[in-house]
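Title: Prediction job returns without error message
Component: structure pipeline
Severity: low
Priority: P3
Assignee: unassigned

Description:
Job completed but the reporter wants confirmation the result is attached to the right record. Sequence as submitted:
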Amino acid sequence: MKDCFYAAVEMRDNPELRDKPIAIGGKHRRGVLATANYIARQYGVRSAMSNYKALQLCPDLLIVPGRMAVYKEVSSQIRTIFAKYTDLVEPLSLDEAYLDVTDCTQHSGSATLIANAIREEIFKTTGLTASAGIAPIKFVAKIASDENKPNGYCLIPPHRVGNFLKQLNLKKIPGVGKVTLEKLNASGLFVGEDVLNLGLNQMQIKFGNWGAELFKKCNGEVIGSINLSRMRKSLSVEHTYEYDKTTLTQCLNELPKLRAELDARLAAKGLLNKVSKLSVKVKFNDFVSTTADFSCNQLDDAIFTSLFEKAYSRGGNKGVRLLGIGVGLGETQLQHEQLAMFET
C-alpha cells in the first residue's frame, strides 16, 4: 500500500481504527500529514496536507501520532522476506522496493507466482496486504503496482507492453509532473500513442532531450536496467518461530539450520572470504531485540554459540520468537538490475 503503509500498521495494531478515517501526523494545528488511509482519502485527505485542511474535508478524521520505530521494524520484516527470493532489491522507501527475480528458481521461475508467494508471506508475517507490479520494464512495473491496489497484483507480460504503453495516460509516467503534463496536453498529447504518432524528431524539437526520452519510454525502449553500485556491509539470515523458544538449548539447536542458510548465501555470492565480523540477533516474545557481535574473519560455531549465550542472558526468562545470525563484510561491489516493483 504505497503511501498508506503507516496507516495500515496502525489499523493492524488497533482494530478499532479499521473502519474509521485516520491519518498519521502530529496533532497540532499546523501539523502536516504523513499519510492517510483509504477511507480518509475518499474525503480528499492526502499526504502532505495540513491538519487544518484535512479536518475541514473530514471532520471525523482521527490523527494518529506516528511510530517510526515500529514502521522500520515492519519494513525490515518485509525486506527479510524479499531476501528469500532475491538479493537484487532496491528499496525506494520503507514501503516500496524494486525486485529483480530474473534468476530466482523458486516457483518454477514464474515472476507472478513469486510475487504472489511474497505477498502471501508478507500478510502471514506482518498482517499487512501488499500490491505488486510485474513487468520486463522498470517504470512499467512501478505503474503496474498501482493498478490493483490495495492487495492485488498486475502483470504486464512482454507481449502486452506495447499496447499498455500506447494506452497509458502520460500523467502516470514517472517524471511527468503537473506543469509538464499541461505542456503535453496543450500539444494534444494525452496517452502514449499520441507521443508515438508525433514521432521522435518532433518530440525532440518540441520538448528537447526530455521529449526524446519520453518517446523512447512510450516506445518501450527504456528498459530501466540500472547498475546500482552499492557497498554491501553485511549479510544475515533470521527466522521467526511459530512457537517461542523457552530455553537456551532450544535456541542453540537452531544454529545448524541458520548456519546452513548463511553459508549457502555467502557461497552463492562469493563472499566467504570477505567476513570481518560475526553477529547474532535474538528477539524476545515482548518484541524487544538484542544483538551481540565479535570481530572475526571466519565463520565459527563456537563464537556464534558464545554470542547466543550472551544475547539470550539479557532476556531473563522471556521466550524467544526470532533468532538470526549474520556477518559483517569487507568491501565488495554489487551490480543490480531492477525490473519489478513491490509496494506494501
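Comment from assignee: result matches the submitted record. Confidence is low (pLDDT under 50) at residues 226-230, 332-339.
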